[in-house]
Amino acid sequence: MSGLFITFEGPDGAGKTTQLRLLADKLAERKHQVLCTREPGGTRISDKIRELLLDPANKEMDSRAEALLYAAARAQHVAEIIRPALLANQIVLCDRFTDSSLAYQGWGRGLNINTLCEISNFASDRLQPDMTVLLDVEPKIGNIRMSIRCGEQRDRIEQEHNVFRERVCQGFRELAQIHPARIVHIDANKSINEIHKEIWIQVERLLAKPGGGHTGED
Questions:
Q1: In the chain, fewer beta carbons within 10 Å around the N or the C end?
Q2: What confidence tens digit (pLDDT) does each residue in 82-110 have?
Q3: Residue 19 near residue 135 (C-beta atoms within 8 A)
Q4: In 107-212, which ranges are continuous DSSP H helix?
């Protein structure tokens, strides 16, 4: 049996980190080996790239440079952390993955979706999640949550305008329609406990499938 790869996606303020941790605790209670990680980041090199990407001082960053930096961080992350964990039969929970690149740099920045897919496939060595949990929250609510969480101390992406946030949300929703077998679309305007219960129902179904998972390759 090989590991499972579950990603958490959604706009800023959707509650991804909270729900990832709740799921990790639930899986650990049931004696599963769980690895929690995030993008951009997860490795020493990827964390360095994260600093460049999210630093508010880098406002002049070109959209193509941004997309390639995310891909570079992902390539290192997959090679060094994610794939080895899956081959070791662990359940990998990742806060963001390729869908974020498509939603943010594709729908958000207006870059070509097909080109971004090619870049992401190259960076990830065609690794795909077994399941993606999409937490869908209205941009205004997400903005309020971010203000409560971090006040004015927002990173470069979190400082983007409302129109950008709306485009990103639309991108995630369209991705859910394109990949209904993989992406579990959840209303993140609900309470934390309600959302967690919905996620757990879907994960239990995934765990019950023959083999319990695969390495995430198409």
A1: C
A2: 999 999 999 999 999 999 999 999 999 99
A3: yes
A4: 113-124, 139-150, 162-178, 192-208
What's the CA gap between 149 and 12, in Å, rounded?
Answer: 11
**Residue-wise pLDDT tens digits, 137-158:** 887 776 666 666 665 677 777 7
Angle (CA) 107 111 114, round 5°? 90
- Helix, strand or coil, per DSSP, at residue 136: strand
R_g over Cα of the chain: 16
Q: Which residues contact 139 (CB under 8 A, 6 or more apart)?
A: 11, 162, 165, 166, 169
> Per the domain annotation, does 216 fall within a domain?
no
Q: How far apart are CA 47 and CA 154, in angstroms?
A: 17
- For residue 122, being part of any structural domain is answered with yes
CA distance 16 to 39: 12
- Write out the two tokens for 133: 């949990």
61 assigned to some structural domain: yes
3-class SS of residue 167: helix
Domain limits for position 168: 4-208
209 near 48, Cβ under 8 Å?
A: no
pTM of the model: 0.90
Count up the domains in the chain and report the number.
Answer: 1
Task: Tell me if 215 is assigned to some domain.
Answer: no
The verdict on whether omega for the bond into residue 139 sits within 30 degrees of 0, i.e. cis, is no
Residue type, 98: T
